Amino acid sequence: MGQGGGASEAYLQMMDAWYSEFVRANPNSPPPPPPPIPQYASPPPPPPSPIPQYAPVAPQGVDMFRREKPSRFEDGLNEDIRVFVGILEIREFVVLVERACKVEELVKEKRKATIESWDLKKRQMGKAHQSSSKRLKEFTTRLNVSVGYSRRNNNQYNMASKAQATSIASVGSAWPNR
């Protein structure tokens, strides 16, 4: 140990002396906890191999498996029970076919409903546009009637107001001429 070891040893002795004096002065103070005992962890187990090692399958093993493949449980049953099993399998198949047909029908109905809703939205958009233009025409007609001008008189009124505006402008302007 070099100088660092001697300095830390001197520091520990100084702290030990201070603590023992502190304990004598304060008898009610709790004793320090014992130093922890180092627990060394065991090394982790090696990771499993990324490629599992299986016994190679020989080509003749496949054929042997097929030969020794257990036959269906039906083979041990009497003829009546085999017939019932066959009927049940047919019924299950029929149920599956019916469900598939039902799904196809539902898909067709959904497609029709989607197309109908799209057409309905399209028609409503067209009607909304037509009705808004009709409302605008009706509103302008009512406005002209309520003011008391017809279209023919309306043009004469516009000409008169333009003439009045020009006469006011020709009298004088607040803006200086450039």
Description:
The structure is a single chain. The chain is mainly α. The protein has a domain at 74-142. The protein contains 4 helices and no strands. The two termini are 101 Å apart. The model has no long low-confidence stretch (mean pLDDT 69).
In short:
This protein has 178 residues and is mainly alpha-helical.
Topology of this structure?
Layout: H1 3-25, H2 59-68, H3 79-147, H4 151-171
Name its key features:
178 residues; mainly alpha; 4 helices
DSSP summary: helix tally: 4
Helix content: 55-70%
Quick one: overall form? Answer: flat
Unreliable segments of 5+ consecutive residues:
none
**Terminal residue distance:** 101 Å
- How many strand units? 0
